[in-house]
Predict the structure.
Amino acid sequence: MKPFTYERAKSATDAAAAVARTPGARFIAGGTNLLDLMKLQIETPTHLVDVQDLGLDRIEPIDGGSGGLRIGAFVSNTTLAADERIRRDYGVLARALLAGASGQLRNKATTAGNLLQRTRCPYFYDTNQPCNKRAPGTGCSALTGYSRQLAVIGSSAACIATHPGDMAVAMRVLDATVETVKADGATRAVPIADFHRLPGTTPHVDTTLQAGELITAVTLPKPLGGTHIYHKVRDRASYAFALVSVAAVVQRDGSGRVAIGGIAHKPWRVEAAEQLLPRGAKAVARRLLAGAKPTRDNAFKVPLVERTLASVMADARGDA
Amino acid sequence: MKFDTPAGQNPIDQLKVVGKPTARVDGKLKTSGTAPYAYERHDVVANQAYGHMLGSAIAKGRITRMDTSAAKAAPGVLAIVTALDTPKVAKGRFNTASLFGGPKVEHYHQAIAVVVAESFEQARAAAAMIRVTYVKQPGRYDLAALAKSAKLVSASSDEGTAPPEVLRVGKFESAFAAAPVTVDATYTTPDESHAMMEPHATIAAWNGDKLTVWTSAQMVAWARSDLARTLRIKPENVRIDSPFIGGGFGAKLFVRADAVLAALGAKAAGRPVKLALSRPQIANNTVHRPATIQRIRLGATRDGTLTAIAHESTSGNLPGGSPETAQSQTRLLYAGANRLFALRLAELDLPEGNAMRAPGEAPGLMALEIAMDELAEKLGMDPVQLRIVNDTQVDPEKPDRPFSSRQLVECLRTGADKFGWSKRNARPASVRDGRFLVGMGMAAGFRNNLVVRSAARVRLDKDGVVTVETDMTDIGTGSYTVIAQTAAETMGVGLDRVKVMLGDSDFPASSGSGGQWGGNNSTAGVYAACMKLREAVATQLGFDASRAVFADGRVIAGDRSAALADAARDVALIAEDHIEYGDLDKQYQQSTFAGHFVEVGVDRFTGVTRVRRMLAVCAAGRILNPTTARSQVIGAMSMGVGAALMEELAVDTKRGFFVNHDLAGYEVPVHADIPHQDVIFLDETDNKSSPMKAKGVGELGLCGVAAAVANAIYNATGVRVREYPITLEKHLEKLPAVT
Ligand SMILES: Cc1cc2nc3c(=O)[nH]c(=O)nc-3n(C[C@H](O)[C@H](O)[C@H](O)COP(=O)(O)OP(=O)(O)OC[C@H]3O[C@@H](n4cnc5c(N)ncnc54)[C@H](O)[C@@H]3O)c2cc1C
Ligand code: SF4
């Protein structure tokens, strides 16, 4: 860990301004991802701006009674998963959260921090190894190395990492929106679909957030109804990242939405594929994964997506 | 005490304390966080500074330059020792790679520098500032690709100077060719990491020429001699203290870089230094269980009698390293007239392979016991029955050499009965429970019992307290407790009157902990010392030692009786002795046996396997403490689930290292993976193993488990997987279609 300075901001715009003003500055929320990366010198911020005092810790109905919810950026994963409204109306989100990390980590992990967690590519974690995401221009070790966990679609010749999280996959299926504020007080609302990016030639940039831009909240549109399922496939029963996960909201008539985790640099959702839900998992998977470029190590994720989709659809029908 | 004839009746047979389920005597310290583990011994020496290891960034090559200028100038830095500016350390007797490398680099993360600073964070940050220039050399990292060129090594444990050859009994090839039913299959097991909870950690302090290390070592005497050798100092100038160990599984059998670097750092800084290997350094800096490729051929008559058995195993290691002896148990487990065994070793430039819990047997049984399942299916025979008909009560290579005790058949019968094996549907893929394909599997478990010299000192004080001192270690196994039970039984006192001191090299040298030999041998050594103390007590009291009975804190001989404490009224009585063994282990094959039974559910959609039930039935001599023995077995069963389903060090065959080198990447089972576990110990005493009549049990619990899981998966799915771990992709596309 490199020495750094630390401050606790008092307002959202102050926090954004502090980060914008100081080169090498970063926000810190729960610290469960950032501090680990700092210890390994994968991240080397010079200044940390703590966001715990910004009052971003509430879950509230959206003004105007649209039926949606606004989740403060600092709301913990535990609080969010336990919220009665989330459990009732957005079950897929509660289930995704509870499938992630461990109880202790979820107590600290926040909504914004979770969206911004970095990849779990093992080469990203080993500073001796080339990695375009960690050290732009050094190359991608995973492409010619061990890639069982990594992406099968949307990847590039520069990076095949995945977004490893669960929460964002559920948010993608719910069409959440990320609200932000910048140092000058300007606010933005970024659809979750546009929040995470594909690696392309700049894999060191995970999201479309700009420097110093602070996440203030994530909003959920009004409830979708239907059956909410989050199915996370992993080698061990708990405390492991997904090989593949499926977030789904399925209606009685068999229509619905699905987003897939563990296979791309962002939660993977293809609206055109969802139209095929009534035709079964194979049709959906084929469309979802059109153009997939798996490696030898992770080729299994292609059939696994289809079979997990089949599982989710059977669960939705009540006949797994 | 020399143990060279089978034990007769002795004070242990009273079983007033020994053999009773007994909670750990050190349990309170552990659960209250006050057991002093190496890194936390802040009180043993003042002014401790922090060391941090720098590991090589390449797998093979040479270091040409190390620029420490920035690191030296970093805040808090007290000293830096690099591979280039310090005399080369010697290689320990038990190490294959040097514990302090350079300029030659033998493997990834080999230690090449240590930084000492005022704080842990400063040491770690400064270590990252050392600029190292390497010249890389091509290395050999792919066992599968190199297997063909692997060299034959001796498959027999009988040491000799004869050139290595294939070990043969009878005529394997012709018997195999003539056998009406055969199996010929190849199985692979991956590199595995010990993944013990406590990392390697040491505090080192010099006082002139004398070095004290507070460390985490399974074998104190080996640590002392090898650390001395490595640092080129006299063993008598080294003191090791290792009273509590947070797991080892073989990773801490031999001195590792933490002790060497802490000592070098302390010398350079002129201050005591504490150093722990960080979790991401452990997989590549230290040792692991080597991967194997095993070919097994079995030939049987139609009634299931084995007529031909061949087990050939290939593994890799650094030049000078040893093979994984995966054929070892097959030499002894089943009868069969015609036998062939071969071990091959490929040179690799991956980190050093070495012993991990049940070395040889654990991966060997992972293969053999699937092969037996395959044979049973071909024969149309129950797999339990197949093992029963091939039982042997003698060493198949030396039929005049019987087993000291062998209840494999009883283990299998009891297990089948208690597990409800008769309900198993032998036709694979025929049982479903909701989304799960359900199957049952079993395997035999086998692990040798090893006898090793072990010494102890016991002291009787005037308050009647018996203090035991031995350099034996407790690696979480319960040594403190069984030793206390042994002393209490022999001296006729309650557990509350016994104090046990372990892990200090100033104490008499014990068997140490490894190879499941610790429990039987260390207690036998304590028994020997206690018997000597009884003589001293009798003499002091003027009693006839051979007739004296020690019970309830008193000594009784005929109509005379005295309090035990009276013998030490004026001066404490001290006795020291050791157990040493004759050739009973040559006359008799000494082994332990188990039947493992497992039920799994395989998700018919995703192919994920979850274990539903497990049972182990063990026959392992006298069970000194059923509570701690059970803990050993259920822990081992959990490790077996890991081996079956998830544990694998992923090799980057291009760059030459284990990629998933932390506990997020190297997955071991969590609570949610482990279902209800049952353990049954058969009533057994083995009078040829030691005066304790006990044998090892800590590794037996692992041996065979993974194969039982694999066989259960096959029974569930009908898809045979021969490559561990059985992660979902190994059978996913062969599972029945889903819609
Ligand atoms: C052992 C382990 C297992 C895990 N398993 C899982 C899992 O199975 N599934 C899963 O989904 N996750 C898992 N995680 C990841 C975990 O969910 C994240 O670490 C956590 O959500 C991060 O939240 P945080 O508040 O601690 O973020 P921090 O570590 O504080 O910050 C993370 C990033 O977000 C930035 N940031 C924080 N708040 C803001 C803000 N308001 N605006 C802009 N930027 C901000 C920080 O600058 C930093 O870059 C695991 C983590 C660990 C350590
Ligand atoms: S996949 Fe991406 S994160 Fe992994 S090594 Fe390649 S560039 Fe780095």
Remarks:
- Chain B touches chain A at residues 57-58, 75, 121, 124-125, 128, 280, 434-435, 603, 605-608, 610, 645-646, 650-652, 654-655, 659-662, 664-665, 667, 669-673, 725, 727-729, 732-733, 738-739 (CB under 8 Å).
- The mean pLDDT of chain B is 97.
- The first strand of chain B starts at residue 2 and ends at 3.
- Residues A 26-34, 36, 51, 73, 100-101, 105, 108-110, 112-114, 116-117, 165-167, 214-215, 241; B 664 surround flavin-adenine dinucleotide (ligand 1) (CB under 6 Å).
